[in-house]
Predict the 3D structure of the following.
Amino acid sequence: MITDKIVKTPVRIGMVSFAHYHANFWSEIWRDSAEAEFIGIWDADEIRGREMAAKYNVSFITDLEDLLSRVDAIGLCNETSAHADVIEKAAAKGVHVLCEKPLATSREAYQKITSVVNNSGIVFQQSYPKRHDPINHEIKRLIDEGALGRITLMRVRHCHYYGLDPEFKDEWHTNASLSGGGALIDEGVHGADLIRWFMGDPVFVMAMLSDDAAQMGVDDLGLAVFRFANGSLAELVSSSTILAAESSVEIFGTKGSVLLSGVDLASKDFSPDKSLKIYTDNNPRGSWTVPNIISQFKKGEFHQQNALSFLKTLINGTPPPVTLLDGGRSLEMILSAYEAANSGRTVTISYA
């Protein structure tokens, strides 16, 4: 499908904030791509912004409106609570947006973003790099083709260990008013999107949270169990205090199973390069198939894919591979999980 949003090359692009580290990966792509003209950087933290501008050999632009007037598109990596305001300013100038996860900290902010994006007609792409990894496309192919039968259970663990560093307590990620919460929203939203991409939209959730390990004032461990209309279940575990692990994704069907390691920081260094294992009822009992696929996360080519695919979307005029709806529905899964954890009851997920 071709849209009317084709942008002539080189795409004039700017970076809004380095509050989130992933801005570095996007900036590397835009600095080095012949299809992009990296116009400059704006950051509310001027010292940080000037340092990053020097690093990537671009201008530091002191006024956000000035940057927006010079570009076709932006990468948005500021604090999550500020996403909606910047998107509104970008949309008013017809500037396309690649937005860091999670989309927002609240349903109200998500609704505001939806309104301004839809009314402006800008291209909006949500940043979910798992959607671009060939290893996940292989799993989705197996599911969609029925090789695993009916999926009964999916388990996703997406974790890192930064919460064990005392200095992490001073990061904005641990300020719920800026981030929306702790590990469950920050890392868990990756897993939520993967779950719904593979299995569709769940209808119920129950959850529990803990802040015991890091004691940062936000959850450092979240566990959510989602139920689908057909009775299938998905378990999501997200933590900022897991030092080492192996299987990151486990999928069980009536005809086969999939195990995937090495796709979060807890497992990256503790799994083999070829970390996808597949069992189907066509295999001899007790044997696994190991495809010759290495995840982009293991190869250090993970977060860059958001920036590359965003450029391709703008240049080719094709719909974004990860949409505003995707960002909103995975956020709703997480917000509903927080509701479930805080109320101690099962919550019905209501999608806007």
Remarks:
- The first strand starts at residue 11 and ends at 16.
- The domain at 130-297+332-348 is CATH 3.30.360.10 (Dihydrodipicolinate Reductase; domain 2).
- Residues 324-343 form the longest helix (20 residues).
- The mean pLDDT is 96.
